[in-house]
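dumping this here so i dont lose it again. seq + smiles for adenosine-5'-diphosphate
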Amino acid sequence: MKEKLSVVKIGGNVIEDEKALDNFLSAFSRLEGLKILVHGGGKLATQLATKLGIESKMIDGRRITDAETVDIITMVYGGLANKKIVAQLQSKNINAIGLSGADGNSIQAHKRPVKQIDYGFVGDIDGVSSELLKNLLSINLTPIFCALSHDGAGQLLNTNADTIASEIAIGMASVFETTLYYCFEKKGVLLDITDENSVVKNIDTSKYKELLSKGVIADGMLPKLHNCFHALDNNVEKVCLGDVSMLDKNTKLFTTLKL
Ligand SMILES: Nc1ncnc2c1ncn2[C@@H]1O[C@H](COP(=O)(O)OP(=O)(O)O)[C@@H](O)[C@H]1O
Ligand SMILES: CC(=O)N[C@@H](CCC(=O)OP(=O)(O)O)C(=O)O
């Protein structure tokens, strides 16, 4: 039987809020078994860019990443956000190790080809080094990934953190029984965005199609659920979406996705 692994992605609104981040990291540290954390920090990057007088451009939730912007996101994702999380986890007795996709060649990617839109230095993932991650986990290190991949030719690439999480989960699924958790500020996929308790508890492929056609899934939830089903289609056992209480397993109010 395969050993269990949890891959947890932490949402942008949680990272931004010091108290919420601390709560989340405490819950993450209590999570039993092998685990990997993935974080973004898109809003923090936008804030720093604004302070530096650089405009942030997003299309369909993806950042147009020119040469100036790739430097900013490297500082924010790979530096500030990643190292703060690693240090806070150390204080909670988790031996965390911060990684970008360039570290240990852990996430290989290529620059997204220009079609209608030139996204700039944005990476589409080709592979994840599951062997390296397995080795780190085996010596009791907990990998903490930021939203950076690389092209193998010296260029760092901006890659959406939801996608990094699903690709890591897919890469690890051959070795571990893998569950992917998307932890954000809502209790799960909501039927009515204004009603916190209207959580859709179970979503399979046909329910997903129904929710899409009814327009229930919108904004950031669209790419997120696309990533969820991509992971399920590629051997990830289970995907769960919810707030921090989902990690502590002291609530039944969260969304579980299965094929
Ligand atoms: N049906 C829905 N249920 C829950 N959230 C939804 C729904 N439709 C749209 N959303 C929006 O999607 C957002 C989550 O996407 P996003 O901000 O990209 O995630 P993250 O915080 O993980 O980066 C929520 O904050 C919410 O405003
Ligand atoms: C290509 C692309 O758009 N990358 C994202 C990466 C950060 C991210 O995903 O952050 P959240 O999870 O906090 O939204 C961006 O730069 O905003």
